């Protein structure tokens, strides 16, 4: 998302069990768009890791051994509904849960962030924001781009108020939520003053609680802070 500041990507790699981890990019939500895959390699070849990607719209490898030998699985953005439909056809949810149980780092941006929760707020349908059922590894719901898309906040408020969405973790652009197991461990950010919010109901009244994020050092392409 930020080609000149790889702080969040670097932070993700730091959570892996190896000094030089293998990281697999999953670009299903974009239809395995070549330009997106190229952007991944352009960024991650600058970091101390072994990058690869998973293609589901070309010749697809044997998924279970391919994914379970990775140290990090990094899911890109795009159409969340289409991504989940394709994943379910390939039995990906079961494999990803096994990867999670084995301690493989699961990460992602936009569609790749909300997919791990019970539900999410998505713009997969043209012209409207709607709830979507996701993988259910993490409780509640998630919304990305909370400050980047003007319609996000009012749509989320309406859907939480109507109980169409459960309590939701809303992330501004540049903020990452770090979970250990099923519990929120830390919020970090690549941008000053960016934050997350907990949006939920208390006695039938909508409450939005700000959750400050810790600013990470800028990480340049040359690996220097």
Describe the structure in brief:
This protein is an alpha/beta fold and 225 residues long. 26% of the residues lie in helices and 31% in strands.
Terminal CA distance reads 18 Å
| DSSP, total strands | 13
Q: Nearest-angstrom radius of gyration? A: 17 Å
Shape: globular
Low-confidence segments, given as residue ranges, are none
Strand order of the largest sheet: 6-5-7-8-11-12
Annotate the secondary structure layout.
Elements: H1 7-14, E1 22-26, H2 34-44, E2 50-54, H3 63-68, E3 72-75, H4 80-89, H5 92-101, E4 105-108, H6 111-114, E5 117-122, E6 130-133, E7 138-143, H7 152-161, E8 168-171, E9 175-180, E10 183-189, E11 195-202, E12 205-212, E13 214-215
Parallel strand pairs: 1-2, 1-3, 3-4, 5-7, 7-8, 10-13
Antiparallel strand pairs: 5-6, 8-11, 9-10, 11-12
What does this structure look like?
The protein has 225 residues and is α/β, with parallel strands linked by helices. 26% of the residues lie in helices and 31% in strands. The protein has seven helices and 13 strands. The strands form three sheets. It has a six-stranded mixed sheet with strand order 6-5-7-8-11-12. The chain has a four-stranded parallel sheet with strand order 2-1-3-4, sandwiched between helices. The chain has a three-stranded mixed sheet with strand order 9-10-13, with no helix packed on it. A hairpin with a 7-residue loop joins β5 (117-122) and β6 (130-133). The longest helix is centred in the first third of the chain and has 11 residues, at 34-44. The protein is globular and about 50 Å long. The model has no long low-confidence stretch (mean pLDDT 95).
């Amino acid at each position: 998302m930020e080609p000149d500041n790889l702080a969040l990507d670097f932070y993700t790699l730091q959570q892996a069990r190896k000094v030089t981890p293998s990281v697999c990019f999953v670009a299903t939500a974009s239809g395995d768009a070549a330009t997106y895959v190229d952007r991944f390699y352009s960024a991650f070849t600058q970091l101390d890791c072994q990058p690869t990607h998973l293609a589901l719209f070309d010749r697809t490898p044997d998924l279970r051994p391919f994914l379970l030998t990775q140290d990090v699985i990094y899911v890109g953005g795009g159409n969340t509904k289409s991504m989940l439909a394709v994943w379910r056809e390939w039995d990906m949810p079961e494999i990803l849960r096994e990867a999670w149980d084995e301690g493989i780092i699961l990460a992602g941006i936009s569609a790749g962030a909300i997919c791990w929760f019970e539900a999410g707020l998505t713009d997969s349908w043209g012209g409207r924001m709607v709830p979507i059922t996701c993988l259910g590894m993490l409780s509640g719901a998630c919304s990305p781009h909370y400050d980047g898309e003007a319609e996000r906040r009012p749509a989320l408020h309406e859907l939480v108020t109507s109980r169409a969405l459960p309590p939701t973790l809303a992330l501004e652009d540049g903020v990452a939520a770090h979970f250990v197991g099923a519990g929120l461990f830390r919020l970090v950010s690549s941008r000053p003053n960016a934050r997350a919010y907990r949006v939920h109901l208390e006695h039938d009244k909508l409450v939005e609680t700000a959750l400050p994020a810790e600013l990470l050092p800028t990480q340049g392409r040359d690996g220097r802070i």
